[in-house]
Amino acid sequence: MSRDAFLKWRKAGAEKLGKACVYILFADDFSRTTANQRFLSVGHISATPQPVDSQDKERAFWSVALVFTSAGNWMTTGQARTVESIFIDWARDAGRYEVANRTVPEDLPSADPDGLVRAYLAPIRTVLEFAGIDVFQFNREGLFTLSRGPKFGKLDRAKARVVPAAVKTIEIYQDSRLGVNKLPEIIEKVQALVDAGVATFDGDMGVVSFIRPTRVIASGAFDTLLGTFPKDWTNASRRSIQDVFDDHKGARQPATRSFAPLPMGADGEQSTPAGMTATCPA
Fold first, then answer.
1. What is the value of pTM for the model shown?
2. Coil, helix or strand for 186?
């Protein structure tokens, strides 16, 4: 439904449904959105009356709401919270929108759905894809692979995405590894990652291995990322992270809380949640 229709429905008392539901707020066409609009929020409404969340009205990035509930009255608040948690996982795995959610994932129940919820979730991604709704579709253009010369070519196995909610920031995926120069300033940053428990470092090989998804902020005159250049990271269309940085140059980014996006395999399939994101100046 449209933004206005959703807000009017909430104001009139969405709890009159008599059952819980889950909603997703987003801009309805990712390909036409600006960097400031590529956000998505997931929430739930309990079956019992509760105060209207005014934050939804204040968020400027969304134009459309999707509402999910059961055909019968079986969906409880607990089941809706499980669906909410899974939707957050799916959206983060897709890497299409930045999840700007008001609920910290740790506050949600573990995503261990019962039989009813599993059956309910099974067709949802397929149905949305047929309907042309892209919120859970893997964004291959957003996946960047590190490729450098022969010195590091045998060491690098790294993938990352650009974080739209922050300026010149990438998130390196879990299980990535990259070779680093043994310059003191680089080793200092690597050691900070090791101390934070998000990476390991093989000093003999000069290889950093990431055990958690990790956000890295570009730094220096050349916007280096742990010793790599933005031009060294390219996607399936051969666009580089440098191209993305150039596109967003001068754009004002909205403030948002930072959560821990779930890791994703190189093929875009889900992998085991890591439960933690670190941020490191490059």
1. 0.65
2. helix
